[in-house]
Give the backbone structure.
Amino acid sequence: MNALEINNLYKVYGNGNVALQDVSLLVPEGSFFALLGPNGAGKSTLINILADTVNASSGSVSLLGHDLFHERAWCKRRMGVVPQEIAFDPFFSPREVLKFSRGMYGQKADDAWVDELLERLELTQHAHKITRQLSGGMRRRLLVAQALVHRPKLVILDEPTAGVDVELRKRLWDFMRELNAAGTTILLTTHYLEEAEELCDQVAIIDQGKLITSRPMKELIREVASSSLCLRYAEPLQLSDEDKSILSAFSPRVYDNQLCLTLNKQDSRSDFDTVYQAAKQRFGTPVDVSIRQEDLEDVFLRLTGDSS
Ligand code: ADP
């Protein structure tokens, strides 16, 4: 069973911006799923369509086998979305926000669960303040609590840890891991690729509105990630257009004194020796050579060509 089945989804905004083009994606039930892409890729558009704050232009989505666009009420009760934008009634307290939200989902009060959420999201001490008095980080945590208050089957988090300090981020992820282990499907977008690699068992990358890849995280890292040969020189390097064109098969990257070249496993030309000789011919003998295994960040940059 899939938690989400997204089929041929398109979104064209009123001003003609094409944000999603024919995106089809399966999110397996019980997965911890990372949706990645550079700025402007269409991640928020996709999440906002799921959250019902943006209308799709065409395509279909089903949640646990139910049509999202035609069975909204059923789906909303089983989905918790943590949006990027923070909007609370400024005069409600966190506890009131949570109680009220349960009511909105038509569920009866569950004080024990509300208390646990306040505790886990480190809001207990602030539970009686009005939300206007909370810091940005506290409001962000309250958004997470609010998305969980009706015990959804699918939790969607749009950049949940932006501006949240490292320690708290770790505790937030520990909590998400527990929920995931108990059967909740989690879909998240994040800029912290290390975090995605560590947490998620599935990954999809979108770029310019199109799906580039969707597969198990381990498989992506194993199949797509390759090694880089890094050559360090005494002086900073600069690649001329000619250098770039000669080395283009190896995706050359320069970091000050260092030149890194990708060793592409599928391409016999780019074995260690060829790459080394090509670099040596252009720039002379390096002072140091190292091999680096690519991580998700490298793969992401290579697949999307994003250098920001
Ligand atoms: P991401 O979340 O990956 O950064 P977005 O979904 O925010 O990407 O944006 C995808 C594309 O849609 C971008 O080109 C963006 O400029 C455009 N876009 C987003 N929201 C709107 C909107 N309300 N009106 C018009 N264009 C939009």
Notes: The chain has eleven helices and 14 strands. The first strand starts at residue 2 and ends at 12. The radius of gyration is 23 Å. Residues 13, 15, 17, 19, 37, 39-45 surround adenosine-5'-diphosphate (CB under 6 Å).
